[in-house]
Amino acid sequence: MAKKKSVFTVKEDLNNLFNEPSAPSKSNSERLPIDNALTTITRQMEVSGNRPRTISDYSIYVNHFKDTTGLAYLSDITAERIYNWLSLMDVSNQTKLIRLKCLKAFLSRCFYNGWLVRQFWKTITIRVDSNVKEGATEHEIRTLLSLLDLGDFVQLQDATATLLMFKTGIRINTIIYLENRHIDITNKLLKLDGAIMKNHDQLLLPFDDTLHRLLTVLVRQNDAIRQEYGVHNNYVFITKQGGVISNSPTHNNIQKRLNKYSKEFGLRNINPHALRRGFAKSLLIKGANIAEISKALGHSNLAVTTQYLHLDKEEVAENLRKYL
Fold first, then answer.
1. Are 202 and 193 in contact, with CB atoms under 8 Å apart?
2. For a designed S-S bond to 299, which of 7, 168, 223, 294 qualifies (C-beta 3.0 to 4.6 A apart)?
3. pTM to 2 decimals?
């Protein structure tokens, strides 16, 4: 066997070139507690104008992770501990995915603050079924509205909120913060500013004659209730005593009553998400393109919009046939 030439022998030791650098060990007094990191990040989010619901989710799921794993310091978090946390949850994969996304978002903020040196959580995923939920139909909406007593303030409010979500696609959390200034009654137009929108973008949405009538009556009724109880606010949806209709991200009277109507009247798709999906599907059927629908829904990604449309393969094929 021919002797290997010395020129092909690399003398430099490169064995550890691609090994991950090990972080220097720190004493407990130097390491950042998870609680402290969470406090700082939630304060940063508040200053940046993030929605209270988003900030609340960070606190809930990061604390759940901390309490479940027993970890106290940020530097102790590893991929293995995250997988262990997920394995201990007795919930659906979809719920696990929601919680995981929140924890990963928190860790990403820690990384950008310089507290973590590697984004090891990026590759951690949860496999979930991709079944698309159905949207509300015109028939379900008409059925619900025919069963509500519009002479009753609360039911008038619920009818208006339901139709707003179905006819404009706005989110239930946008409805909570909707004020009189957001409604241009004369031009039948919602003028939504970024402060009440999930994506913080301004949006203009037209509404029809039916909503015009309902909103006009509701605003007038609200004024009478506020005057009766000496309450001063400009919200479109209020309590029977004139106060704020939702006092926390997870407590929403309108949503609770919609769930009640759905069960009571056997209307499967009477809920905020189904109403938004119904709005998207209705626009598509009437000829709106996906870019327009996406903008109306306040989505930043067209892929999210397509999930709202609930199109099956046969329907897509039939729609494409007219372009051949």
1. yes
2. 294
3. 0.59
